[in-house]
C-alpha cells in the first residue's frame, strides 16, 4: 500500500511540474503575439499555469499547490528561460503555443482529477475539478490578453477535459495502474484537441432566436 501511495504521489508531482512548464511556455508564446515584454509574457504564463490549480485547491480547502513547494515557480522560471533561448525556433512553429497549451491542458486535467480523488471526493466532482484545473488558467490568460476566452468559443477545449475525465474514470474502474491511467487519459485529451482543430470539429452556435 505504501508503494502504491508513493507511486501515486510521484506521478501527480510529475504531471503538475510538466503541466506548469508547458502552460508557461504557451502563455508566453501567446503574449509574444501581442508584443508583450518578457515580464508581461511571464505573468501570462504564470496565470495560465497556476490559475486553474489555485481555484481547484481553494475549492477543495487546500493551500494552493504552488505555495507548498518552490519547484513549481522554479519550473516556471525554467520555462521562461527555455522560451527566451529557443524563441527563434518556437517562432518558426506557428502552432507552438497550441501544442504546449494542449499538453498543459491534458496534464493539468489529470492533476486535478488525481488531487480531488486523493481528497476523498467522488469521481463526478473529480471530473469537474479536472476541467477547472485544465481550463480556468486559460481563461485568465485570455482576459489578460484581451481575447475572448477559448471556452466561450466553438472550439473544443473544456469539453476535452470532461471527456478525459470520463476516460480516467472508466480506466480506474478497470483497476489499471495510476501510471497507465494517467498516460492513456493524457493521450485521449491531446487527440481530441488535435483532431478537433485539424478537422474543424466544433459545437454549433446558439441561435439568436432562442
Explained architecture:
There is one protein chain. The protein is mainly alpha-helical and 210 residues long. The protein contains eight helices and no strands. The chain has helices spanning 2-33, 38-59, 71-85, 87-92, 96-118, 123-144, 158-173, 178-198. The N and C termini lie far apart (54 Å).
Counting H and I runs of at least 4 residues, what is the number of helices? Answer: 8
For the sheet with most strands, the description reads: none
**Uncertain spans:** none
- Provide the residue-averaged pLDDT: 87
Distance between the termini: 54 Å
Strand content: under 5%
What fraction, in percent, of the residue positions are helical? Answer: over 70%
Structural features:
mainly alpha, 0% strand, 210 residues, 8 helices
TL;DR?
With 210 residues, the protein is mainly alpha-helical.
How does the SSE layout of this entry go?
Layout: H1 2-33, H2 38-59, H3 71-85, H4 87-92, H5 96-118, H6 123-144, H7 158-173, H8 178-198
